[in-house]
Every structure is written in C-alpha cells, then in structure tokens.
Amino acid sequence: MGRTLPELIAQFDLTRITCHSALLDLEKLPEFNRLHLRRLVSNATQRHQLVEKLQVLVEEAFGSQLSDRAVLDPAYVERTMLLRQDHICRLQDLVSPAYSYLWTRPAVDRAQLGTISEKVDEIAERVLGLLEGSGGNLTQDVLNAELKKLSEGLAGTKHSNVMKLLRMALSGQPQGPPVAEMMMSLGPKEVWERIQKVLSS
C-alpha cells in the first residue's frame, strides 16, 4: 500500500488486464486518502497551500467562536497539521468537533475538574511551573516524561487522573490525543492561558 506512481508504472503488465469489472475496496479509501495527504504535506509548496485551505476551513467552521485569532497564524496552523497528519484522512477532519479544542478555548471551570481530582490547584501550578522552567523548549518525549514525574510527585493521585484532568482543562473533552501531544499542538502560551483560566474560574 502506498506505492508511488513510478513504482506502479514499473509493475504495470498489459497481459494482466482482463475484461472483468474492476473491484474497489471502499474500506481502503480512507487510508489511500491519508497517504495522499501525507505526500502533500511533505512537499513545501503543497503544504503551504494546505495551510491556506485549513485557515479558510477554520474561519468557516468557528468564525465568531475564535477568542484568539492567533490560531489562524500560518506557523500554528502548519504545526497543527504536521502533528495530526497521521491521524486524519482529510483536511476537513481538523475542524471536526473532536479537534475543536485546537481552535477554540473550552468552557471548563474548577468545579468540573474537581470531580476528577481534588488537587486541581496543585496540578495546575505544577504544569505552569513546568512550562516556565522549560523556556518553551520541550519536545513531546520530554514533556511525556516530565508529566509522568509530575504525577509521581502527587501522593494519592493516579497518573491517569492527572492526564484526564489536564485533557479536560485543555480541550473540554474526556478523550482525545495524548496530553503531551495536545500541549505541543497548542503551544506553551496557549496552554498557559488555558490553565490560568481554570485557576481563575
């Protein structure tokens, strides 16, 4: 799966052509589309065009809901697309409800997070400290490790609950991408804003 055009040409054999009706496996279409999208993203010129298309899609899908129009910044849009390219089949997937957190801030307050863990303030403060101490130079692997350490330092609190709380604070969704990946997509500034919003609610 995922052969290039030159490879297909090299393997083409006229003697293997028959008059039978062609069969199309519809279940494979999403994967074909995913591979095609990845090829487009890997090309600088086509990636730039995809960024422009995604900006339009975000504007159309969320418009007045965009509390911070910095999410339309080409660098942010491109980073988001690169991080999620292996998880989507179409560019439109990135403006589906599952990914709305990328473009709009969730309406989540301290009381909601308190149902997950009573240590909302401590978890939030530790995440803010992690962001402040990193200088914005965290990779996803390092962030995963640091979040694990953060959880281990909270007596009586499971790592899974810490991740659930952070996911809810950042996206308003109980399920979704790994928290570290979510934080990388949003960027330190936006993560900081969302955590601070929870603390002040």
From TrEMBL:
Protein biosynthesis listed as a keyword: yes
Any one Pfam family match given in the protein's UniProt record, by short name: Anticodon_2
GO biological process, one term: glutamyl-tRNA aminoacylation
Superkingdom field: Eukaryota
GO CC annotation: mitochondrion
Key word Transmembrane helix present: no
Aminoacyl-tRNA synthetase class I anticodon-binding domain boundaries: 62-199
InterPro entries: aa-tRNA-synth_I_cd-bd (IPR045462), aa-tRNA-synth_I_codon-bd_sub2 (IPR020751), aa_tRNA-synth_I_cd-bd_sf (IPR008925), Glu_tRNA_lig_a-bdl (IPR020061), GluQ/Sye (IPR049940)
Keyword terms of this UniProt record: Aminoacyl-tRNA synthetase, ATP-binding, Ligase, Nucleotide-binding, Protein biosynthesis
Any one GO molecular function term: tRNA binding
Homology family: Belongs to the class-I aminoacyl-tRNA synthetase family. Glutamate--tRNA ligase type 1 subfamily.
Name of the protein: Glutamyl-tRNA synthetase 2, mitochondrial
Source organism of the structure: Molossus molossus
